[in-house]
Amino acid sequence: MAGIDKAAIGWSIAIVVIGVAIAFAGQSGQDLSIAVNTPTIVKDTASEMTSATKEVVDPFADIAAKVKENPKEVMKEAEKATSDIAKEAEEVVEDIGETIKEETEKHAPGPETHTVNIPAGTSVPGCEETNACYLPADIIIFAGDTVEWVNGDTAAHTVTGGSPADGPSGVFDSSLVMGSASYSFTFNDAGSYDYFCMVHPWMVGNVQVN
């Protein structure tokens, strides 16, 4: 009877040990499974990153494949696109040229009137020393422009083409211009035109027409 009890107790202990061993083995298997699965996730992530990097580095893969499959068709499309761009560029250049031409014509300077003053006191010698008998004494204008001489003196003066040494040239002559009066002449031809006052020959000036 005592032997049977000992045997039963031995079997009970063995069963408990086996159960504990099975439980421990199951837990170890779970831990092992986690350890094994982790590298698999890292591997997949690295693969995705490699794929994304490849897409960024080679953005023309589709175009290259298309050229490889049908190079003649691609070249035909490229020639057409180039022709269209060249045509558009030519039209843009023409439009810009027309705009520049219009703006130039719009703002091109037309005939102008330039004023030359005859200062007070020029009827007495002395203004010739500072070249101030006509102000300005020398003027540059363009063909088609007009020069107006305004007499600010109380004495009468003339604006006569030519020089005191050679006399009148016959190109223009104001005759007597009384005080506060004026005389105008339009220069249509380019050239250099000297003039003087026939009453006061020390008064000289020049008009340069371009």
Structure in a nutshell:
Its main location: periplasm. With 210 residues, the chain is an alpha/beta fold.
What does this structure look like?
It is a single chain. By secondary structure, this protein is of the alpha/beta class. It has three domains: 1-59; 61-107; 113-209, Immunoglobulin-like (Sandwich), CATH 2.60.40.420. It has three helices and eight strands. It has helices spanning 2-57, 61-69, 71-107; strands at residues 113-118, 138-141, 146-151, 160-163, 167-173, 182-186, 191-196, 204-209. The strands form two sheets. It has a five-stranded mixed β-sheet with strand order 2-8-7-4-5, with no helix packed on it. Helix 2 (61-69) packs across helix 3 (71-107). The model is unreliable at 1-7 and 20-43 (pLDDT under 50). Cu cation binds at residues 157, 197, 200, 203. It comes from Candidatus Nitrosopumilus koreensis AR1. One of its GO terms (cellular component) is periplasmic space. InterPro entries: Amicyanin/Pseudoazurin, BlueCu_1, Cupredoxin, ET_Amicyanin.
Strand portion, in percent? 15-25%
Average pLDDT over all residues: 77
The counted number of beta strands is 8
Helix content: 40-55%
Please report the number of helical segments: 3
- CATH topology category name of the largest domain: Immunoglobulin-like
For the report, how would you describe the main beta sheet? 5 strands, mixed
Order of secondary-structure elements: HHHEEEEEEEE
Number of domains: 3
CATH class membership of the largest domain = Mainly Beta
Radius of gyration: 54 Å
Q: Rough shape?
A: rod-shaped
- By helix and strand content, what is the structural category? alpha/beta
Please list the strands of the largest sheet in the order they lie side by side.
Answer: 2-8-7-4-5
